[in-house]
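Journal club prep — side note

Before the paper discussion, L.F. wants everyone to see what a predicted structure for a comparable chain looks like in token form. Sequence:
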Amino acid sequence: MAIDLTVAIPTYNGVSRLPAVLDRLRDQRGTEAIAWEVLIIDNNSTDGLAALIETYQNQWRPDVPLRYCLETQQGAAFARIRAIHTAEGIFVGFLDDDTLPALNWVQTAHIFAKQHPHAGAIGSQIHGQYEMAPPPNFDRIASFLAITERGPEPHIYEPHSKMLPPSAGLVVRRQAWLAHVPARPTLTGRSPTSILNSEDLEAILQIQNAGWEIWYNPAMELEHQIPARRLTREGLLFIVRSTGLARHHIRMLRLKPWQRPLIFPLGWLNDCRKALQFFIHHRQQLAQDTVLACQMEFLRCTVVSPFYLWQQQWRRII
């Protein structure tokens, strides 16, 4: 029987986090008419992840296959690519090992995907579940942690809006990915050799550029479990820095090749202007206000981004 939906969970050392996600998937409701599977992609874990999955397989629901595979190339992008190539579903729904799907997530994802034949990818509504209280005005930077609360109605992410959903809770049409996402991504995700993220946006943008619709479906709800260490000033600055340094690549993907050398210098000068204005206006508050410091760091890293990426490419060449 053909598989409608593969729920893919890339994970690295997720033994302490993954059980809560698997328990939610085991308890999914309204899936009697859906052929679906769960696929765990182990991205070089060293914490006994394979043994954990074997334990779950021995007590798993009989109507839903639970499969395990190993991806040895470090980086979330490589784990997702392995998921796409290993999945048997027409659609692949990505969960992180710290995102808890609502008990109807599989059902609502499947229904929406079937109802929207031009959708190449569909993003979920993601709420934060915080181990400690976020800093004041956290809503200004919440999207950096994949918090996605964009209203109660479904809508298309229009290309001109320059907004896209994160990979957590993303359901992609497998054939759209295979046809349009390069096998060798430029951004690979944070790893021991790279601090860059936005590798998920790179893939989604390739699908959008090919003419597929990208949707937001608030009925597909997740809870993102965010530990205290990620909400500290240092943790938030690192996440923002990882995104800012990758921004030039994402921006250039939105443009046709002939547009890039023409638009880049104007955009970069505008970035410099915005960063300088922000610094002048808020310089007295940056040391005390974590959110303002994160906004400043993002603007600074956006300015640095093209030069940082060129430097990384040069190092790979030599």
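L.F.'s comment for the group: The CA atoms of residues 81 and 183 lie 7 Å apart. Keep this in mind when we get to the figures.
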